[in-house]
Each structure stands twice: as C-alpha cells, then as structure tokens.
C-alpha cells in the first residue's frame, strides 16, 4: 500500500486496532514492529526522510498522560527486552522526526493503551495528526543518550485518546459521569452495572419495564426436542472431533480462548446446562451475561441508545436479546389492535445477508451476492421486550450497523431452545453507539400499516441508509 503523509482514506480518528498488522493493512502504520514509520524525500533517502506515523505503546520512556502533547522517545539502542545498552543515533526514524520538525509536516499518532476487558491485550488508538515542535537529547535511566521529540496535536480534531482518559477517570472514581441518572438500571441483575445517562434533556427515567437478563419461553410454546449433549468431562477443546458440540458446529470450535467469535454461523450450537463439561467451558459464551461496561444514554433524535465504556473487539459477545417469546398469532393481534410495540425482534423479517470477515472494499472488489450467507433457523422466533427485557431493548437500528445477531441453540430443561446473541461486526471504540439492522417485514405483512408492522423513518444517517425500517 502506498505510503502517504497525513490523513489515510477510510481511517477515522478514534479507530482502534488490536493487532499492529491491522494498521499495516489499512496503510496507517507500515512497520509491524518499529515505532516510527517514514518515507524518503526527493533527495537522498538517508538525508531526507520524513516521519509519517509513530506508535507510542509505553515500551520506552514516553510521557503519554497529556491528551494533546506527546513526549516521544527515539528508537534504537535497546535490546529485545527493552533494556537500553547504547546511545541512540540520528538515523532512520529518529532522523525522519528531526526532518519533520524542520519541514513542519503532519505525523499520524497511534497510542497503545491497556485493554480493560482482557488485561493481557493492548489496544491501539488512532489519535489523529500531530506536528513535531521540539527535539533534544537526554540521558536515560541506563545512562545512555536518548532522542526526545515533543509532538503537539493539530487543533480542531475530534477527541480520541482524550476519551479513553476520561473513561479511566470515571472508572477510577476521580470524576463523575456528566448527566448520570442511575448508577445501575439493572439493580444488580447483571454482573457489571449498566448506567443510565441523559445529557440531552430533562428526562430522568425510562418507561416502566421489568429487567430480566434471559429469554422467557411460555409454557405453551413448543420448542425443539433435546439434542445430544456433549461427552466432554473437563472442557470442550478445539479439534476434538469426539465432541458432539464441535461436530454440530461443522467440525470447528466457534470461539477463541478469550471468547471471541471467530466465524459467523448459520446456526451456532453451544453447550447447555446438562452437558457434563465444566461450567467455564469456552463453548458457553452467550450464557455468561454482560461482561462489558455498558451505558444506556439519551440520543439527540432516536430516544435511548446503548454504548460501552470499554472498547469492543470484533467478534465479542455483547448481550442476548432478552424478553418474552410470543407466537405469530399474538404478534398479529398486536398489529390488529394498533399496539405500538417497538421492542419486537422477529427472525421472520427480511435481513440483509453478509459474509463474516469479508470486506470487498479493502480488496478492491465489487460486492457480490454470491458471498452472502443466510441463517439456518429451526423455527421462527419472535421476542417482545416491551414489558420484560434487558439492555438489548435499547440497541437502535442502523442500515450500516456495528453489531449483528447470531442464532444460538442450546439445551435447557430437556428442550433445545433458540436464543439471539449480539456480537460486534468490527472493532468498536468506547462511547460509540451500538446498532444492528432491524430488517424489514415480509411481503405478506407490509400491507399492515398498524402497530408492530408499521414502517418507520430511519434516522441512522448512514450513506447506505434505506430511508426506513420495520
């Protein structure tokens, strides 16, 4: 990919990356290891390099606390275990930063921060464009000389690293969340509190509903007969073809050891409560409850929405769509009576298909319908979260969503029950609204202009907006 100074098309300030190779792939920062990316000028490559981007990941003695100023340490003189053994030299990346100081060109800055969800993971945050304002040398802790560069953020850019710092203060209790209405709207039902925030108007509460974290099947609802439980006695392991759960998932294990969904399935089979494997088996991801620090917040024009204080890696489980399972007769009755139930999830709607982990734009290919994968659902599932539900009832619609729904089947009470789990389509930065595609009613239902089948004007603002949903 061609190197360039300044803005990289398609990369937004605040975008996050979990692997340095991701930054290489999009052209944000080319070196897979080095902290300074540079390119040659028109003259001699050794005399006229210019810095393009830097990664400040805390490996050296960088001052990273200021959200608009970064004191960056040069490269070189270190062993593989980050021990400095020699003076740094004014060459390569160090020389490029020095030339950028004289030239005044913009330098992209990526900040490495600790992942709050998985402590062993680092997240790279694109913090926008900076300029080198000053350079000097000083002696490091080992007594060797280090080049230092002062970079100042170009004014007028949206916050990125500053957002992470603000959230850290909220979590550490050093400052309070503006507009906080409730500390935990779940009243302790979820393992992690879900706050309610309104910075838009004076509304101080939600319409009455009962918070319940699971799906409620009525006694009259006929589900599938129980499927075979797995025969693993410790934990289901990838590659164990004797495990019936892995067999039902097409021979592959659906999750990583950290619980990241690695492949979207037409139907995902998880271990149920009666499987003999241990309760912490990695094939029970959607049954473990909310693990993210979520927040219900008031939007400017679409009611209440849902966002996260934590960054969310692509494939991360967010929550289940909880509520009361209803049948088609009751759904039709709601429409006939003109009841406006905005909290209906219906697998019978028409949804845009997509292929997991495939971005034709990055590959400079045209989108083809041949790559789409449709769901394989054993029966139509209709859920109403109007009176009973969880945080999922606050996820708004978007024609370009960052969350998708995945049908999950597992055994419970001697029956195989279908559930709807939400996973992240892509990496999602903190305080980004979570959205999924609500789909559209089937052709035989669109004539009903009342209640739950009424089409609604879409306000998602996406360039791919269909103009309506429902």
Outline the fold blueprint.
Blueprint: E1 16-17, H1 20-26, E2 36-40, E3 49-56, E4 69-73, H2 92-103, E5 106-114, E6 122-139, E7 145-153, H3 161-172, E8 180-182, E9 195-197, E10 210-211, E11 215-216, H4 244-248, E12 268-269, E13 294-298, E14 304-308, E15 317-320, E16 323-326, H5 328-336, E17 344-346, E18 382-384, E19 388-389, E20 396-397, E21 403-412, E22 415-424, E23 435-436, E24 456-457, E25 468-469
Parallel strand pairs: 3-5, 9-13, 10-19, 11-16, 12-21, 20-23
Antiparallel strand pairs: 1-6, 2-3, 4-7, 5-6, 6-7, 8-9, 13-14, 15-22, 16-18, 17-18, 21-22, 24-25
Mean pLDDT: 87
Helix content: under 10%
What is the CATH class of the largest domain? Mainly Beta
> What's the CATH architecture of the largest domain?
Beta Complex
Low-confidence stretches: none
Give the radius of gyration.
26 Å
Note the gap between the termini: 41 Å
Structural class: mainly beta
Count of domain modules? 2
CATH topological fold name of the largest domain: Beta-clip-like
> Could you state the CATH homologous superfamily of the largest domain?
SET domain
Topology as H/E string?
EHEEEHEEEHEEEEHEEEEEHEEEEEEEEE
Strand content: 25-35%
Number of strands: 25
Biggest sheet overview: 7 strands, mixed
Summed up, the helix count is: 5
Principal-axes shape call = globular
Domain Pre-SET: 228-289
Domain SET: 292-439
Protein name: Histone-lysine N-methyltransferase H3 lysine-9 specific SUVH3-like
Organism: Prunus yedoensis var. nudiflora
